[in-house]
Amino acid sequence: MRYLTAGESHGPQLTLIVEGLPSHVPFDKKKIDHQLARRQKGYGRGRRMQIEKDQVQILSGVRFGETTGAPVALVVENKDWTHWKKVMSIDPLPEEAEKRRISRPRPGHADLNGAIKYDHRDMRDVLERSSARETTMRVAAGAVARLILEACDIRVGGHVLRIGSVEAKRLDFPWEEWTARAEESPVRCLDPDAEQQMMALIDQAKKEGDSLGGIVEVIVEGVPVGLGSHVHWDRKLDARIAQAIVSINAFKGVEFGIGFEAARRPGSEVHDEIEWSEATGFTRRTNRLGGFEGGMTTGEPIVVRGVMKPIPTLYKPLNSVDIDSKEPFAASIERSDSCAVPAACVVAENVVAWEIACALLEKFPADTLNELKEQLNRYRERVLRF
Ligand SMILES: Cc1cc2nc3c(=O)[nH]c(=O)nc-3n(C[C@H](O)[C@H](O)[C@H](O)COP(=O)(O)O)c2cc1C
Ligand SMILES: C=C(O[C@@H]1CC(C(=O)O)=C[C@@H](OP(=O)(O)O)[C@H]1O)C(=O)O
């Protein structure tokens, strides 16, 4: 499967085309909209999220509630566009363009590099597309992927482990309970004490015109052993997931299982011992490597974390240089979130869901959902007997 997204943050709409979907996947618009609504939430978001009400319009590839196998085109309206029609005009408007020009790049955003690379004297031409507004459509693609995963009994969840200096305690709950707790928490955090501290920290950052980053964790349950492959670098599924996570705006790092802690421990405290029983087949006593060996799934849950840097736009701006006068100035201020880690957690879940669905369809090529399910079920039986 593959997808493309298009659309500017303040343009009329965002567009997604997903190609390679099997036919007869039950296509419930409510499930896509549910993921979009989850992405809009989170303590620390700015005013933009009060304006938008992200919902997809399905334009192709779906008929009578199921995919046909043709490309699925989805669009989401930018409600804010009505306020930006002139600024975002497709036709030339020289006066407007001059009046609204952005010439003071924000450190940490794509403004300066993009302006130099594409030779734009107005950095809006960069920020409109570098904005994380685009993650709406990546979540929509992930939500489509989840329709396939759901049919294959694979589930994906996520929660926030850190915001700024506040770290959540590790709490162990059954799947239904932890995902419900994350859903109810304004910061998607399972630890109620940390949740309160995180919210207080966000309030403080906002008051001080500053911003915060954090760490999110995504867990995937129900994956069969052997998705991805050791035989070639670009077929390693952990590597693909790493790219998917780091491609999320402001994400700077990724780790699986115990992650960077593996550098400090001896091998005997890192590798996951192998067990076997007639009922379960091969399993692991621990899951310290987060569900991957040799670029392939082990059959244990996938555990992947991503680190998000603080939001670059600061209401108390950092120093910058005006690209016209070359004089030092404070960076430009755009309306902004002060912390978007909880929202980014939803993005992370959905980009991971997309990679898992692609890996499934690579291992079990299928034109119809039933073909996929039949192959997967046969494989699961073979794995049990191995
Ligand atoms: C959900 C989400 C919301 C974001 N909101 C903002 C924002 O309001 N203001 C901002 O400056 N950056 C925001 N960012 C981060 C920027 O989009 C990002 O830092 C920028 O595109 C530069 O890319 P890089 O940080 O990956 O290098 C957000 C990121 C995510 C994932
Ligand atoms: C629009 C979204 O996030 C935006 C991401 C973003 C950025 O620079 O990345 C800047 C802000 O844009 P605006 O200035 O229009 O408020 C965020 O609101 C969204 O997540 O849907």
Q: How would you explain this protein's 3D organization?
A:
This protein is an alpha+beta fold. It has a single domain (2-385), classed as 4-Layer Sandwich (Chorismate synthase, AroC fold). Helix content is 34%, strand content 20%. The chain has eleven helices and 17 strands. It has helices at 29-40, 48-51, 94-99, 111-118, 124-130, 135-151, 175-184, 192-207, 237-246, 341-363, 369-385, and strands at 2-6, 13-19, 56-60, 62-63, 66-67, 72-77, 155-163, 166-167, 214-221, 251-256, 274-277, 281-284, 292-293, 296-297, 302-308, 319-321, 328-330. A five-stranded antiparallel β-sheet has the order 8-7-9-15-10. Strands 1-2-6-3 form a four-stranded antiparallel β-sheet, with helices on one face. Strand 16 (319-321) and strand 17 form a beta hairpin. The longest helix has 23 residues, at 341-363. It is globular and about 75 Å long. The two termini are 29 Å apart. The model has no long low-confidence stretch (mean pLDDT 97). Flavin mononucleotide (FMN) binds next to helix 10.
Brief overview, please?
Belongs to the chorismate synthase family. The chain has a 5-stranded antiparallel sheet with strand order 8-7-9-15-10. A 4-stranded antiparallel sheet has the order 1-2-6-3, covered by helices on one side.
Relevant terms:
four-stranded antiparallel beta sheet, 11 helices, five-stranded antiparallel beta sheet, binds the ligand C=C(O[C@@H]1CC(C(=O)O)=C[C@@H](OP(=O)(O)O)[C@H]1O)C(=O)O, alpha+beta
Give me the count of strands: 17
Number of helices: 11
Give the biggest sheet: 5 strands, antiparallel
Query: For the record, what is the CATH homologous superfamily label?
Result: Chorismate synthase AroC
Give start-end ranges of low-pLDDT stretches. Answer: none
How large is the radius of gyration?
Answer: 22 Å
Give helix % range: 25-40%
What's the architecture, going by CATH?
4-Layer Sandwich
**What is the general shape?**
globular
Derived structural class? alpha+beta
**Multimeric status of the protein:** single chain
CATH top level class name: Alpha Beta
Kindly state the mean pLDDT as a whole number? 97
Order of helices and strands: EEHHEEEEHHHHEEHHEHEEEEEEEEHH
Might you state the CATH topology name?
A: Chorismate synthase, AroC fold
Bound molecules: flavin mononucleotide, the ligand C=C(O[C@@H]1CC(C(=O)O)=C[C@@H](OP(=O)(O)O)[C@H]1O)C(=O)O
Number of individual domains: 1
First-to-last CA distance? 29 Å
Task: Provide the β-strand percentage band.
Answer: 15-25%
What spatial order of strands do you see in the largest sheet? Answer: 8-7-9-15-10
